[in-house]
Amino acid sequence: MKNVTVSMDDETLKAARDYARRHNMSLSSLVRRLKAQQVVRPGANWVDECFALMDKAKGRSRGRRWTREDLQRGRLSAGCGSRTHCRREPPTGRL
Question: Is residue 30 pLDDT above 90, yes or no?
Fold first, then answer.
């Protein structure tokens, strides 16, 4: 990894150091992360980000597993209290 010299005003430097300290990281790692977010192709790690978000989500499936038919017919909201929504028929015709 190469070293780079960066210049910034005192107020920005102080704020950056405070931020890094609060997040238990060095100023160098903070600058490295911020620059990488700006210059790395957007979505390069989208799969990892999606799985990280799924791991953090607090789902309420209660252990239920959905079938392909459930997904296609829109039966994901079983027990929502809406008779029309939970029991609607699939659209007719071809897609």
Answer: yes
Residue 76, C-beta contacts closer than 8 angstroms, at least 6 positions apart: 66, 70
pTM of the model: 0.43
- If one counts every other C-beta atom within 10 angstroms of the C-beta of residue 74, the result is 14
Check the CA dihedral 17-18-19-24 and report its sign: positive
Distance in angstroms between the alpha carbons of the first and the last residue of the chain:
52
67 compared with 9, residue with greater pLDDT: 9
User: For the residues of 7-39, what is the DSSP string, one character each?
Assistant: ---HHHHHHHHHHHHHTT--HHHHHHHHHHHHH
Measured CA to CA in angstroms, residue 18 lies from 12, 27, 30 at distances of 10, 9, 11
pLDDT digits (tens, 9 = 90+) for 35-64: 887 887 666 677 778 888 888 887 777 777
The encoded tokens of residue 34 equal: 């911020």
